Amino acid sequence: MFVFGTLLDSRVRARVLGRPERPRETAPALLSGCERVWARGRRYPVLIRDPDGAVDGILLTRLSARDRARLGAYEGAEYRLARVRVEALGERAKRVWARAFMARTLGATRRPWMPFAR
User: Fold this and answer.
1) In which region does residue 41 sit, left (phi positive, over 0), alpha (psi from -120 to 50) or beta (all else)?
2) What spatial distance separates the first Cα and last Cα of the chain, rounded to whole Å?
3) How open is the CA angle 45-55-19, to the nearest 5 degrees?
4) How many CB atoms lie under 10 A from the CB of residue 5?
5) Is the Cβ–Cβ distance between 103 and 78 less than 8 Å?
6) pLDDT of residue 54
7) pLDDT in tens, the chain (118 residues)
8) Quick one: pLDDT at residue 91?
9) Furthest C-alpha separation in the chain
10) What pTM value is reported for the model?
């Protein structure tokens, strides 16, 4: 699972998953062809297609069915799971298929969203 917004915060991930993070279950990752922008009227981001863009995020691995269900509940009906190709970075560098929550019904601004921007 590729996460790019509020789930970049390890405390938020732990609260959503209902458990502490396990060693080696995350890796930095990069999604090309998209841009991360503010959702219209919201306090969190959405991804929009941008052929020149790239979004840094985290690849969550070894997720259980329970973990995936909790992530889906956190994201809600405004998002849908989409299959994306990301570049896993660091010691496990390689291109992999992952899932990412893409906006289904949310409008997007053109204003870039930076992690933990206030």
Assistant:
1) left
2) 25
3) 65
4) 20
5) yes
6) 96
7) 999 999 999 999 999 999 998 878 999 999 999 999 999 999 889 999 899 999 999 999 999 999 999 999 999 998 899 999 999 998 778 999 999 999 887 888 889 998 865 4
8) 75
9) 38
10) 0.89
Cβ atoms 11, 2 nearer than 8 A: no
Read off the amino acid at residue 38: W
The residue type of 103 is A
Three-state secondary-structure class, residue 8: helix
- Cα separation, 22 vs 52, in Å, equals 34
Q: Residue 7 in 3-state DSSP? A: helix
Q: Record the tokens describing residue 35, joined without a space.
A: 């841009």
Instruction: For tokens 């997007």, name the residue.
Output: 108
In single-letter form, the type of residue at position 114 comes to: M
Tokens of 93: 């560098």
Spell out the domains of the chain, with CATH numbers in brackets: 2-106 (3.10.490.10)
Looking at residue 99, its amino acid is R
Closest CA to 25 of 74, 85, 67: 67
**How far apart, in whole angstroms, are the C-alpha atoms of residue 86 and residue 105?**
24
